[in-house]
Amino acid sequence: MNKLKATLLTKTGLNRVxxxxxxxxxxxxxxxxxxxxxxxxxxxxxxxxxxFKNIDSLYNEKIYFGTLDVTFYRDDFSSxxxxxxxxxxxxxxxxxxxxxxxxxxxxxxxxxxxxxxEEIFSFGRPASIKLCVLVDRGHRELPIRADFIGKxxxxxxxxxxxxxxxxxxxxxxxxxxxx
Amino acid sequence: MNLKANYNKINxxxxxxxxxxxxxxxxxxxxxxxxxxxxxxxxIKNKISEKSNYKIIDCKDNIITNGFIDLHSHFREPxxxxxxxxxxxxxxxxxxxYTRICTMPNTDPxxxxxxxxxxxxxxxxxxxxxxxxxxxxxxGQKGKELAEIGGMVESGAVAISDDGIPLNNSYLLRxxxxxxKKFNIPVINHxxxxxxxxxxxxxxxKKSLKLGLSGNPDISETTMIFRDLSIAEYVKGRIHIPHVSxxxxxxxxxxxxxxxxxxxxxxxxxxxxxxDEILNEFNTDAKxxxxxxxxxxxxxxxxxxxxxxxxxxxxxxxxxxxxxxEKDFKNSSCGMIGLESAFGLVNKNLSDKMKIExxxxxxxxxxAKIINLNPxxxxxxxxxxxNVINPNYKWIFNENxxxxxxxxxxxxxxxxxxxxxxxxxxxxxxxxxxx
Amino acid sequence: MxxxxxxxxxxLEFISKKDIEKIIDVGxxxxxxxxxxxxxxPTLQGKNILNLFFENSTRTKISFELAEKRLSADVTNxxxxxxxxxxxxxxxxxxxxxxxxxMDCVVMRHPVPGSCIQLQNxxxxxxxxxxxxxxxxxxxxxLDIMSIKEKFGKIKNLKIGIVGDILHxxxxxxxxxxxxxxxxxxxxxxxxxxxxxxxxMLNIEKTYNVDELIEWADVLNVLRIQKERMGVGIIPxxxxxxxxxxxxxxxxxxxxxxLVIMHPGPMNRGVEIDSEIADSSQAIIxxxxxxxxxxxxxxxxxxxxxxxxxx
Lengths: 179, 435, 311
What we know:
The complex is a heterotrimer of chains A (179), B (435) and C (311). Chain A has 179 residues and is an alpha/beta fold. Helices cover 28% and strands 30% of the residues of chain A. In chain A, the strands form two sheets. Chain A has a five-stranded parallel sheet. In chain A, strands 1-8-7 form a three-stranded antiparallel sheet. In chain A, strand 2 (35-40), helix 2 and strand 3 (64-68) form a beta-alpha-beta unit. Chain C folds into two domains: 12-137 and 289-305, Rossmann fold; 138-287, 3-Layer(aba) Sandwich (Rossmann fold), CATH 3.40.50.1370. Chains in contact: A-C, B-C. Chain A binds chain C through residues 69, 71-73, 76-78, 80-81, 83, 85-90, 118-119, 121-124, and chain C through 1-2, 25-26, 28-29, 31-33, 36-43, 301, 306-310.
């Protein structure tokens, strides 16, 4: 069973981080003409939606938006714990020549991101792919790094970072848990 | 005295006076006069007053009945017109009191398509009888492929049969019984196991022993009837057994009827009224399939027609030319004509055992029910389709009474009782009253 | 999570309602993959699948092959006419040769019922029945059910009519098993001698009157009349079959009804179904084909995918 060790972000803290990330993304892209946010199911999608809304309300810009379900591309399933069943990916815009920002909640081994990159390529050839994560907890097993990071929290292997969101968990915070 | 039947178109009024009406369908049984106008029953009343423009026919001591229906006749057309044509067969029928005939399909070509069924019906349009064709079960009656049964029924076929040829392939009989369920018609199989028949020429018994003719045992019929009824019961199909000849078959039919199977059975006048004694002179006119059997069988058949195990009379009218019959017994064709003598022969043998009304039913309502026919009934407004019969009239059957093209019958010279005097149908009236 | 209760797909009689629903749900997800420019996912990379077809089939074989390749599996094809197998090798020998080649999955079509079930005794692989004689054709029924669900959103209480040579149809039997499990109402229609005598025991109804079926049904699945059966003589002629059981343009116009039309293919146009009907907007025949690839991908993924939870 998971034991709560510490709360890393409260509801307010979480919200501020998301606003900052939204500004950072816009800062790095003078032109948003070919910019697309792609959230990785399930929590990555929710975070991406928040960022999308933030950008819309702060800058009055609607950028491209899509969702990825990477189940068919995974090579490991150990982090599949607690995740709901597979659903369809939803990329309705043309991926070719777009600057894609993948969005996920926690960056850990990097395998999910690798799967997401491969899946993006099955939709077309993007101009670039960047990564935005809420939390980077270290322990990469592949050469993957995030471009936009909410918080850095180095962890040990027997720890686990869980992002709670209103839409799924009926609460908002980021917790550090031990097994 | 001209006994040759003509028929004429009815013009004007005909008054049938003083007769007793018996309608098998309406269970109507009363003395009354019938006034017919231009072929339609205009009035039925006790004592209709005569008028000068009426043709009056005195029906005293006569019974007025529905027209007869034969489930089993061979009219040989197309292909064998030398033996009989639709016209001559129709004459024979009308003379015998038959207004409706079911023709068997073993012609040339075999009646196995909707077009041929339609052709037969069209041929009968100008004739005084209705033809209800029976279609073949298999194409060409070859026993291999189903014929277009649905199409034939839609064109007017009332049953299917490969008559003359037993359906040896039991699976095909099963398929035919199942398929025909959709079209609500009975399947009629000629029930004789060809292997057991083994070229038998007459009933295998004491007579065949003395005559030295190869025998056709009763079990050739019985075993196949058992097979046929078992299959029909298994698939819940509807089956009608033609020309039952053996007492052993009756037990089986009774057993299956009691267990709820929709089975009906017919018997011919010759099986009902004759025994194999008739073959003493090797009379080829008495060579039939299935063969006429011994007295024990005849007596059982008579009992069965009274109890209802056998449902009706069917003639199996089978004309053959002189050349076909004037051969040695082995090579003669099987079959005898029967439409003209049917009623007289049956009535003579049953009148002491059954009421006349029940005997008449065997020719009218019983066969009609088997093929779901609704003929015109004896009531006002109806087309006139009826017979005037003298049930007590004794007569010796001779060649002059034969209307068929062929004369192959051993009944010539026999005394019959009961005769159809007048037949009225489709606006025609036969002209054979003996004054 | 992404696993079925069953190890094989031998027939819809043998798998649970839950498994059927899961296969169909995941099938819809694979529909999305089939819309992409690159219609391929790496899920079954490294898996070896043998297509073992002892009976002629173009459509099912192609559909399976497409499904397997789009999942990045390695595919081997073995086609054999039944008679050549009869000449020498028994089924057991053929298959045990294959077993030593270490196949993860065998997709088998065989003309004799039960062959797939017997196969379980000879090999360790996952077995998928691609049609065993007159017994079952589970993936066909699954794609049929998926197509119905796509059109109506549900299966329960829908009225599904199946018309044709029911007696010899594995498509009909699998459909019956699957649809009844999911709560649909099923009625079959055809020439009386081509409907199994006891078929009502499967909790379905039968009628010999195709107009009655059309009046009753929400969906009509029209089976192919195998012309080979005409030679055997138990269907009298094409025109007779068409007149009494054909889904003709005149017949449907007479009923004036919105009816969804399905057909497993290949069609005998002008025999059991008219072109105007097959090509009309009421027919979902092409959707069936597309769903066929998707549902086969789903079956392969659920039976073969690495979806064990690691502790």
